[in-house]
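User: Batch of two.

Assistant: Item 1 of 2:
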Amino acid sequence: MHTRLVTPMMKPNLIAAAEIDRLDTWAKYSAPMCGSCISSCCTLPVEVKIKDLVRIGVVDEFELGDPPKNIAKRLQKEGLVERFNQKSGIFTLQRMSNNDCYYLDRKSRLCTIYDKRPDTCRNHPKIGPRPGYCAYKPKEVVREQNFRAIEKF
């Protein structure tokens, strides 16, 4: 899927929408891309450490003495964590049924915990499946895809 992206003082550009599971379709990252993207990076699994969970506010500092396995069980029951890797100490945050991050606002497509977001998110795309690249998907492409899907009905 391609769309024309035109901004003031720019020539039209042909922009390809990335496929989240195909790293070869990801675009070289530049900060201005985020404003016109559907937040596709927020559909990737978010791996966090215990300090991230404290910052987010779902783990109390007093719990840090508890076995991480017990913390993981509680967070899984609360629907905040998908899984926990005991060997690495990495928790994977729960995602919505459409793979959106639990903390991504569905309408605005903005992070609801931006100031407290995990290090994984703070450092994206410096770290991640393809460092320096992102799964950029322009909002216009998504609108076109949704419009075509509606037309089929």
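Item 2 of 2:
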Amino acid sequence: MHIIIKIWKIENFMKVVQRINEILQERNISKRELAKRLINLDMKASRTGEIPTESSIYAYLNGNIEIKADMLPFIADALGVFEQDFFSDDKRQNDKILKRLYGDDELNYKYRDIIELLEYLSPKSLEILKGSLEQNKQNVEKLNLILKQIAN
């Protein structure tokens, strides 16, 4: 029984490693870039409490060292994905999970792609986008006020 559990663990570990590498390819992110992001996020190894080196992160990504469960949130954050994305590459299944996760918060679910893309904006572009959205909000509020006055 112990051997079966160990085999299951290894198979699932390799699936997670494979899925992380697929996401890297999909998002056109190099392993080196991911390693830098993880180091910048201060991801610490649970055993030593130290930030892994770039070469040890490569070992995790190549499947030479087992990725620990407490590393997955950091990796997900660095890739701009949800942790459950590591366990399924079925888009429909992931969407079901996300809908359940967000529950009544349909707005966040609906705009999650936009939210994920924000990390790729330059600070200046993000500032311009924020200004545009604030201006749009003010215009809508003014319009609603005018419509309310007309209705009364």
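DSSP finds eight helices and no strands in the chain.
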